[in-house]
Specification:
The chain is α+β, with helices and mostly antiparallel strands. The protein is built from one helix and twelve strands; from the N terminus they run ββββββββββββα. It has a twelve-stranded antiparallel β-sheet with strand order 3-2-1-12-11-10-9-8-7-6-5-4, with helices on one face.
Length: about 210
């Protein structure tokens, strides 16, 4: 399979690679992550910055030693919830290397990824990230990465949504795939927060019955 955008050659997968992604805090949407390889070694990390982190519109993917690999940042204003990715810390004046946006603002019909400076390189993400069941396809409709619920190998029990699997196909960059996961988490977290606020406004005393 031909590869796509490469954040760093060291993260391009030579074979199908299964990563385990864990939320490091369970209290706030879009919080930190720790990503482990099949040997249980830390591969990537995303630090948590507390309950207001979501409002900054920026998330940084780091290697295990804290070196910034990729920054994803919300583009404002944006009708389609567009996010842009930058190499490293994404300093002022730096050009983005890719953008991610909802394919439609009416309903959840998928997400489109456009790579800048590489004509024809585009990806489509289909499925439900909220349910941890979605696939990233390249322009030829080949799957390059998949997000799935994590199953405990010893008990065969499906784990909670705060622990899930990221399967990266040969030739694709694991750091790029994880950057797309961060955007999906933010988009989903924003939608969840809006949905909760709407329900709370509609039923102000929900849950008071015990």
């Amino acid at each position: 399979m031909t590869g796509g955008l490469v954040v760093e050659d060291a993260f391009r997968c030579e074979e199908e690679t299964h990563l385990t992604v864990m939320k490091t805090s369970l209290f706030f949407p879009g919080d930190g992550f720790a990503v482990y390889d099949s040997k249980g070694q830390l591969a990537f990390r995303v630090d948590s910055y507390g309950p207001d982190a979501r409002d900054t519109g920026e998330v940084v993917l780091m290697d295990p030693h804290g070196r910034c690999l990729l920054t994803v940042r919300r583009k404002r204003p944006s009708l389609h919830q567009r996010w842009e990715g930058f190499y490293g810390e994404g300093t002022d004046g730096q050009k983005p290397i890719f953008s991610v946006r909802r394919s439609s603002i009416i309903g959840n019909t998928g997400v489109t990824v456009e790579v800048y400076g590489s004509p024809g390189e585009e990806y489509h993400i289909e499925g439900s990230f909220a349910q941890r069941s979605c696939t990233i396809f390249n322009a030829d409709r080949e799957p390059v990465a998949e997000i799935r619920r994590k199953v405990d190998a010893s008990t065969n029990v499906v784990l909670g949504k705060d622990v899930f699997s990221l399967c990266v196909k040969p030739g694709f960059d694991g750091a790029f795939a994880m950057g797309l996961v961060l955007v999906l988490d933010r988009i989903t977290g924003d939608a969840d927060a809006a949905d909760v606020a709407e329900r709370e406004d509609a039923v102000p005393n929900a849950g008071s019955d015990g």
